[in-house]
Write a structure and sequence with these properties.
Layout: H1 4-27, E1 36-41, E2 49-59, E3 64-76, E4 83-97, E5 106-127, E6 135-159, E7 166-182, E8 187-188, E9 191-192, E10 209-213, E11 216-224
Antiparallel strand pairs: 1-2, 1-11, 2-3, 3-4, 4-5, 5-6, 6-7, 7-10, 7-11, 8-9
């Protein structure tokens, strides 16, 4: 019996949202037409860990939408600029608000983040020798960086044409993320660099820690559906 009401709620909410969206369509009040929006973020091509991205947005009602953006990271600013197993995913819950002209163009959103980048690096490592005579030698190793966080965003979505098929979107946000760094046990400069854990590390690129999360986007895309 204790699961009855939660299950009823989960079944009721999607039906309510669908009915609300249908009512808006019949009255001609739906802000940006029904359908699925497919877009790409141009900013992701210029980021330090960058690559092609694709986002899918589904408008559930007049004010609410779900967005999922995935990025295939194809380059990195590391010393060896070819990453592998590199990707980023950003799910988002978005709330559109009514503007002065009665259209729902502006939005605020809560975005989550997970990013993983693994790439080869090269550094000088202390080579065992006579006491006090360790020689630095170049070594290659795999460096793995993982980030998880959240951010609040604000932005605007517009259309280029009267049929509302081609869209333009821009947004910016602010939040926090935690980054884990693992160099696989390589000894660099005589210091072991394994899963270093300074929790509040900020400006040190060689430590795990909390950092700002600043999502910025300029998107272009299309709307699918009637």
């Amino acid at each position: 019996m204790r699961y009855f009401y939660p299950l009823l709620f989960l079944l009721f909410v999607p039906c309510l949202l669908q009915a609300q969206a249908s009512a808006y369509l019949q009255d001609g009040k739906f802000p940006m037409r029904a359908g699925t929006l497919i877009s790409t973020n141009l900013v992701s091509l210029m980021e330090p860990d960058g690559g092609f991205s694709i986002a899918v947005e589904r408008r559930m009602s007049l004010r609410w939408a779900m967005v999922v953006e995935g990025t295939l990271i194809t380059y990195s600013t590391g010393s060896m600029p070819t990453p592998f197993a590199a990707f980023r995913i950003r799910p988002e819950v978005r709330h559109y608000f009514k503007g002065r002209v009665g259209k729902y163009k502006g939005f605020v959103g809560l975005e989550l983040l997970y990013k993983q980048v693994s790439n080869d690096e090269e550094a000088l490592s202390a080579h065992p020798g006579l006491p006090g005579q360790e020689l630095p030698v170049p070594v290659r190793y795999t460096r793995e960086r993982r980030s998880a966080g959240a951010a609040m965003k604000v932005g605007m979505q517009l259309y280029f044409d009267r049929q509302k098929r081609v869209l333009f979107e821009m947004y910016a946000g602010l939040g926090l993320k935690y980054r884990w760094l693992d160099d696989g046990g390589v000894v660099i400069g005589g210091l072991q660099q394994v899963k270093r854990g300074d929790f509040f590390a900020y400006n040190n690129d060689y430590k795990s820690g909390i950092r700002p999360n600043v999502p910025i986007g300029v998107k272009v895309g299309v709307r699918l559906g009637k």
